[in-house]
Amino acid sequence: MKRLAVLLSGRGSNFIAIHDAMLRGEIPGAEIALVLSNKADAPGLATARERGLISVAIPSKGMKRDEHDQAVIAELQRAEVDLVILAGYMRLLTPAFIAAFPQRILNIHPSLLPAFPGLDAQHQAFDYGAQIAGCTVHFVDEQMDHGVIVLQRAIAVNPDDTAESLSARILHEEHIAYAEAIRRVLSGNYTICNRRFIPKKN
Questions:
Q1: Which of these, 24, 95, 113, 123, could form a disulfide with 136 (CB 3.0-4.6 Å)?
Q2: Is 109 a catalytic residue?
Q3: pLDDT tens digits for range 10-21
């Protein structure tokens, strides 16, 4: 059984979607071993407790970034985690964190990377006048929103969309994409060549 840790800073809608997919049997051979937040009052932690999952808060306020990441690394290693899932975790990871879990940290970003990295990607796409938007699940490396892409889902930007309605539709795609990407990675049935995630043929 593969052990996952979910890191979040807020309500954790992607965490909920991932756990629901597990309960439906859509991510076989996996369990959420730990839900961790850098905010003690993150609603996602309360949801994790309600669902009977182990939840831990390591507040980042007042801690140096390196010290906080070392504390988180220790907690993840204690939980013997196989894969780290960032689900609205509003922290940039230090190189030491990434080195501790090489090609074992996934993030989801609400744009079709490399377009519109950083904050408020949905609003960036809307303001730019993009006609196609979407989301990207990628491995985390030392550059922001840069690692190898595992999966993308695209949607058309409708003439009557607002930034808010576009964000909501992208979030719906995120909930589908993340579970599928986790399943692909946990299968181990892939190679990475020249930044391309290539599923192996059976």
A1: 113
A2: yes
A3: 999 999 999 999
